[in-house]
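User: Okay, second chain of the day. Same drill as before: sequence in, structure tokens out.
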Amino acid sequence: MHFKKHTLFLLSSLFFSLIINAQVSICSWNIMNLGKSKSDSELEFIAKTINKYDIITIQEVVAGNGGAKAVSRLVSILNNKGSKWDYAVSDVTTSDNPSSRERYAFIWKPSKVTKIGNSWLEQNFQREIDREPFMSTFDYKGSTFTIASFHAVPKKKNPEKEIKYFKYLPSLYPKLNIIFMGDFNCSQSNTVFNPLKNNGYKSILTNQKTSLRQKCLKQDCLASEYDNMFYYSKKVTVEKAGVENFYSQFITLKEARKISDHIPIYGIVVIK
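Assistant: Same drill. Structure tokens below.
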């Protein structure tokens, strides 16, 4: 009887291990003005926050050389925490307004996923989209998926006019399993996402605010539902999704906002 219990325990542990190993954890974070202004201690805090994930997509990397260097500094800190990391930084986006130009970054664990080919800034709608998405394909145990990281124009500039073009990307890249993620500056409930939803896409978060207020209203420190991920439900299963309320580790929201004015979002997914 004892032997049977022990065997069942080992089998259940093995099964649980296989389930965990079948998952890829992805984090998306708009890290406000990620550049030379970020101190070593701030980068250390960011590294501790994202260290547990397999892939991190970062929006709002500063366009100048300081942005790429800040990502390199961040990865150096991550590499001192036990796991080996690699990264890719985009070229500067082709925004008409120089002040709107930014970079994106991908950071990942090569022990967990393999990046396939080069990452690229999406070219088809450069004129229509201010900061064109940064895309990269990854392989996980023979299953591939492509992340499209995006930072929309501010709410007052009507981000819907950009997001409406996303519905064309799955047909432009029919062989890619695209997961859209980033700071959309509008809620997943916005009708601009309906064409994607009608084609089988789902958001990992609903009714979840992700941007920080200037000041907390009692215990309410979050302002708007801006950040999310949209996945093709026939090819991706989401096991868990949520946010990192990093600001709770700071005495004031003003101090927290030195890290970013957005909180990280994450999805633990299974690629079919």
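The mean pLDDT is 93.

User: Thanks, on to the next one.
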